[in-house]
Specification:
The complex is a heterodimer of chains A (392) and B (484). By secondary structure, chain A is mostly beta strands. Chain A contains two helices and 27 strands. Chain A is globular and about 80 Å long. In chain B, helix 2 runs parallel beside helix 3, helix 13 runs antiparallel to helix 14 and helix 13 packs antiparallel against helix 16. Chain B has two domains: 328 residues, Serine Threonine Protein Phosphatase 5, Tetratricopeptide repeat, CATH 1.25.40.390; 65 residues, no CATH class. Chain B is 48% helix and 3% strand. Chain B is mostly helical and 484 residues long. The chains are: A mainly beta (392), B mainly alpha (484). Chains A and B meet through strand 3, strand 4, strand 5 and helix 2 of A and helix 2, helix 5, helix 10 and helix 18 of B.
């Protein structure tokens, strides 16, 4: 059986509270580690807020097109669900960081146009169903999404949507939404690292570079459900591949020296592997002798771009086992139905090889445009539990 | 009770009407999330002035005090911790300047512009006069730290999201203009004088006149080596005008959030004592038997002596207990009295030294040696220190040539500013080359003979300003710096 979902529906989204106007706030000057807060000496003080409101805000509009098919076989023992979609979102409402020379640090804007297109595939099957009551069901989903920023309003090609000043998350024309933008180490045309003749450490790029997006190339999940007599067992895995994330955990671990990479070579001065020195403009000579001090590299010169790492992962998301108490045992009880089970969530995580730092799904930005941002967030938790379900 | 059908209809109609009436009147306002009920859109000027003053005070007293005092070789990074190692290595990064630049523009500059918007109203003229002075002061701090900076296109909000940078020369011209405009508005007999909300002078407009004159003097001397003609003309016009005889400062308390900004920063860092005494300043002060060395620094209790370490020697563990700067300058983390150290915008001592230098250069008439003595005396008085024979001894060695006299004045000014006006002291060293006893920091990553000459533009400008002019290196000199 094939079904067709009609195309072209529009959905709107409104602005968060208080984005239309600029306000004054009670003065609290944040110096970094210490503040000057009003009232100062019993004297009250207000200061112009740093976010410029926009009274002309328009709602965000997303126009979606989707076509799909749902196929069932073998008397519904197997099914395939497939859809292709293409969404365009316009006039996203964002508090965009702006240069402090303007007297403010952010402005609320309707910014441009983003396109998402991709496919979603789901399969489900029950390969085993025996007369004695054993069933095995397998299922899986696959999503591949391509995202591109088509245009940005206001005559600019790029707008910051989050991050910190040294490592911003931007919407840049021609790049996927949520691309990381920061300085990283310089490489020569052959990909070797250019080190400075003064200190043996990699040179930094003059300008910030695009370092990949927090959006994944593809995602998938797969799992199984088994049941036999009163027992049920379920297991679910999922994965996200190709996304990047910024880890402040890595930044701090490098800084204090607890990251494994800081201990390589016993922390003695050493030559940067596969490095070159720019002896003349455009001419790169292999570096085999100039050493650098890892302590200095990790505590001050290492650029934020090197803390943007592969966020791909596979996760054992859920495991559960339950037993439905046979009805005849419940005859004398007020319960009509009862089952008891154990479950576990977030039981195992396999991350990319270079990610020995944090769970890439943890996001310090909350449910905002700022994703893929581990700002020394708490580690994610493993849950175990027992549950008892009864009905009367 | 059974309701008859008629009654039932009536009741339901009444109920429906009630709901409609309530929703029509109350709901619209209640559900309007575009008006913030917690924050005002207009605020009275007396509430904004102290915010601008405290903002400048915070940067001057915290970030710039640290950079100025380390690069000015009063203090150095402790061997037992590491927060300011990169400053002593002369290798700061753009990250470090996001906050000071942000506070000086977002907080101070923007608030001052708003106050200046009221300069036509009699009720706020005196506030506008103060705002002009502070705008000039704010701009001088910004340009002396960073060089070229936004001015004509600054503070325009969304009218100009990518302000171009003006040259340091233009900024200095504007500084003189703003002070003039401010002084024109001053009227100490106005019925609308500010009160305690003027954190610096409590509304005493005569003091603000003196502040304006002293700031002009400081600014003209700053450009004097680059443009002697302009400096000469500007300073000669100040002949006979009043200069500051009292410190222009903000005082703080021990209440959380109201402490001296450097102290607040240290508390925020967990009370770690990152700053210790540098041998450069300490040994020179000790050589002259300067009693102030025991006030600006804390003597080691066991020996009763101020024991410093060489500048930038944090990689060497010292053999003995070393001294830290004292609570008097707000720099001793474990002493709660540090919270009370004031932040000085311009000090009385500085005012006298500026006048002395102007006389030596021939821009003002007067007795340079007397002014020199008054400057040193003001420094002792300001901290309640007994000078003993120090002042008479030092004044007796007043040298003969112009250049030596300038050296003497700037060096004594340097001692007076020890740990309490670090940024200005470092800036005057950049301008004049005095004092001449600075050493190369042992941790320096710069080439031989090179010192930091500026702070770096912040990341917030690099990544967000479409008209960012490009990073300058830390060793590029200021426009007004023509000294080798």
């Amino acid at each position: 059986m094939v079904s067709y979902v009609p195309a072209g529906r529009q959905v709107g989204n409104d602005a968060p509270a208080y984005y239309l106007r600029t306000y004054y706030e009670k003065t609290d000057i944040a110096g970094g580690f210490g503040n000057t807060t009003f009232p100062l000496n019993d004297i009250p003080g207000f200061t112009r807020g740093n976010r410029i409101g926009n009274p002309d805000l328009k709602p965000e509009i997303t126009t979606a097109f989707e076509v799909g098919a749902e196929l069932n076989f073998f008397e519904n023992r197997a099914s395939v669900d497939f859809s292709y979609y293409r969404n365009k979102s316009k006039d996203q409402i964002l508090p965009v960081p702006i240069a402090p020379g303007t007297g403010y640090s952010s402005k609320v804007l309707n910014t441009g146009e983003v396109e998402n297109r991709g496919i979603e595939l789901g399969v489900r099957g029950t390969p085993i169903r025996t007369a004695s009551g054993f069933t095995l069901e397998l299922y899986g989903t696959y999503t591949k999404n391509k995202n591109e920023v088509i245009d940005i309003a206001g005559g600019v090609d790029q707008v910051t949507v989050g991050g910190i000043s040294a490592l911003t998350i931007v919407a840049a024309k021609g790049q996927p939404y949520g691309t990381f933008f920061g300085q990283t180490i310089k490489r020569d045309p052959q990909g070797r690292v250019v080190v400075s003749a003064a200190d043996g450490m990699p040179e930094l790029t003059d300008r910030a570079q695009y370092l990949g997006s927090y959006l994944p190339k593809w995602q998938a999940s797969w799992g199984a459900n088994m049941s036999y007599k009163g027992f049920s067992f379920g297991i679910l895995f999922d994965t996200k591949q190709g996304n990047k994330f910024y880890s402040r955990t890595k930044d701090l671990m490098d800084f204090v020296g607890t990251a494994p990479e800081t201990a390589e070579g016993g922390r003695d001065p050493r030559v940067w592997a596969n490095s070159v020195i720019e002896t003349e403009p455009g001419k790169f000579t292999e570096n085999t002798s100039l050493t650098y001090d890892p302590n200095d590299w990790f505590t001050s010169k290492i650029p934020s771009g090197l803390h943007v790492i592969d966020g791909s992962y596979i996760r054992l998301r859920e495991l559960s086992l339950s037993y439905r108490i046979p009805k005849y045992l419940l005859n004398r009880t007020p319960f009509g139905d009862a089952s008891i089970g154990i479950f576990g969530n977030n039981l195992a995580l396999w991350t990319a090889k270079e990610n020995v730092y944090a769970d890439p799904e943890v996001n310090s930005g909350g449910a905002t445009n700022e994703q893929g941002f581990d700002f020394t967030a708490q580690p994610s938790l493993r849950n175990y539990g027992v549950n008892l379900r009864v009905s009367f | 009770m059974k309701l008859t059908s008629k009654r039932y209809i009536a009741k339901s109609v009444a109920a429906t009407l009630a709901v409609l009436v309530l929703s029509a009147s109350g709901c619209k306002k209640f559900l309007d999330v575009n008006d913030n009920p917690n924050l005002p859109e207009q605020v009275d000027v007396p509430l904004i002035l102290p915010s601008a003053q405290a903002a400048i005070g915070h940067v001057l007293g915290n970030h710039f005090q640290i950079y100025g005092s380390i690069w000015g070789q009063y203090w150095t990074q402790s061997p037992y911790s590491s927060q300011y190692k990169s400053i002593d290595q002369y290798q700061p990064s753009s990250n470090n300047f996001d906050r000071p630049w942000g506070i000086l523009y977002n907080d101070a500059y923007e608030d001052l512009e708003i106050i200046l918007g009221y300069k036509g109203q009699e009720k706020y003229k005196q506030y506008a006069a103060i705002a002009f002075m502070l705008k000039a002061y704010d701009l001088q701090v910004i340009t002396d730290a960073f060089g070229d900076a936004p001015l004509t296109e600054a503070g325009l909000g969304d009218q100009n999201l990518s302000p171009h940078y003006d040259s340091q020369q233009q900024i200095y011209d504007s500084i003189f203009s703003y002070i003039d405009q401010g002084q024109a508005l001053i009227d100490n007999a106005s019925p609308f004088l500010p009160g305690a909300e003027d954190l610096i002078f409590g509304g005493d407009m005569d003091q603000w006149t003196a502040f304006g004159n002293t700031l002009k003097l400081r600014a003209y001397l700053r450009i004097a080596l680059k443009d002697p003609g302009k400096a000469s003309a500007g300073i000669q016009a100040l002949q006979g005008e009043p200069f500051l005889t009292e410190d222009a400062k903000i005082s703080y308390t021990q209440t959380g959030g109201n402490q001296n900004p450097l102290n607040a920063e240290m508390i925020g860092l967990g009370g770690t004592q990152n700053l210790v005494a540098s041998a450069t300043a300490v040994n020179q002060m000790k050589a002259l038997n300067d009693p102030r060395v025991n006030v600006f620094y804390r003597r080691v209790p066991a020996t009763g002596i101020v024991t410093p370490v060489p500048q930038g020697s944090f990689n060497t563990t010292p053999d003995e207990t070393i001294s830290t700067p004292s609570y008097v300058v707000g720099a001793r983390a474990s002493d709660p009295l540090s919270a009370l150290a004031p932040v000085k915008f311009i000090s009385a001592a500085e005012s006298y030294f500026l006048q002395a230098e102007a006389v030596v250069r021939g821009y003002l008439t007067g007795n340079a040696q007397t002014l020199y003595q008054e400057g040193i005396t003001a420094s002792f008085t300001s901290y309640g220190i007994e000078p003993g024979t120090y002042i008479t001894d030092v004044v007796a060695t007043w040298p003969a040539t112009t250049e030596q006299q300038i050296n003497a004045i700037i060096t004594q000014k340097y001692f007076a500013m020890c740990g309490n006006q670090g940024f200005e002291a470092w800036t005057e060293w950049r301008r004049t080359g005095y004092p001449d006893f600075f050493v190369r920091s042992q941790a320096s990553v710069l080439g031989a003979g090179l010192f930091p000459q500026r702070m770096l533009y912040p990341n917030t400008e690099i990544t967000r300003n479409g008209n960012f002019p490009g990073l300058e290196t830390v060793t590029t000199k200021m426009w007004w710096d023509v000294k080798d």
